[in-house]
Each structure stands twice: as structure tokens, then as C-alpha cells.
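Progress note, sequence design subtask.
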């Protein structure tokens, strides 16, 4: 059970830390406006959507790699958590805060589950084609 919790938390937290870390670097470099100010530039929003999607794929990969068994179940849990949080974030961003275009948080929510799933599938395909990975995985059970 502990290994399952670690797999899910590691996948989720890796996405959050990488995303917020990249955001902070881009704010410090004045690529993004200061925190709390709206970001209306479509290009900057596409940049954020791009790296957040890549990080979400990596989070799915990490989750599947760390899962003790049934890796895609663990990936689905991370995807469901991400979908719920991204949807809540979109609702808040659109209805309460005026932080930028509505399409950005909506696309974050829409892409959250498929992105993490792709990462899990990617990891599983690598595991199933690499004989060393299969042997190590079988030994770890």
C-alpha cells in the first residue's frame, strides 16, 4: 500500500513542482508578468500549456514506473486527481479571477487525464519491449 501511495504522490508532485518551478523561473526572467497579474498573450499561454502537458506526461510515466503492480490503475488515480483539480482551477479562473483567457485553464483540464495516461502507456510500452525491464519487474514482485 505504501508503495502505491508513493507512486501516486510522486507522479502528482513531480508535475506540480516542475510546473510551478518553471513558472517561477519565467516570472523571474520577466518572460511572464508578475504573479497575480493577468497573462493575456496567447503565445505565453501556449508556452505554459506546452510545458505543463509535457510535465504531466512525465508524471504519468513516473507513476507507472513506481507502481508496485497495476501501474495504469495508479496512473488513472493521478489522472483523476489532476482532472478534478484542473477543473476546479478552471472554474475559479473563469468565474472569480481575471487571470487570462478562458481557453487556457479549460485546455489544462481537458488535457490533464490524456496526458498522464500517455505517460503511463509510454512507460508500459518501454517496460514490455525491454527484456531487462521485464526481468527486473518480475523480480520486484
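Output:
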Amino acid at each position: 500500500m505504501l508503495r502505491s501511495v508513493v507512486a501516486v504522490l510522486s507522479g502528482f508532485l513531480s508535475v506540480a513542482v516542475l510546473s510551478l518551478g518553471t513558472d517561477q523561473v519565467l516570472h523571474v526572467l520577466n518572460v511572464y508578468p508578475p504573479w497575480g497579474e493577468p497573462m493575456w498573450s496567447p503565445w505565453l499561454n501556449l508556452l505554459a500549456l506546452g510545458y505543463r502537458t509535457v510535465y504531466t506526461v512525465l508524471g504519468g510515466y513516473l507513476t507507472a514506473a513506481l507502481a508496485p503492480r497495476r501501474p495504469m490503475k495508479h496512473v488513472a488515480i493521478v489522472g483523476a486527481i489532476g482532472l478534478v483539480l484542473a477543473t476546479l482551477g478552471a472554474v475559479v479562473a473563469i468565474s472569480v479571477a481575471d487571470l487570462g483567457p478562458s481557453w487556457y485553464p479549460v485546455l489544462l483540464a481537458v488535457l490533464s487525464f490524456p496526458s498522464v495516461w500517455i505517460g503511463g502507456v509510454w512507460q508500459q510500452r518501454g517496460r514490455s519491449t525491454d527484456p531487462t525491464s521485464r526481468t527486473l519487474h518480475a523480480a520486484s514482485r
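The chain has five helices and no strands. Work on this subtask will continue into the next period as scheduled.
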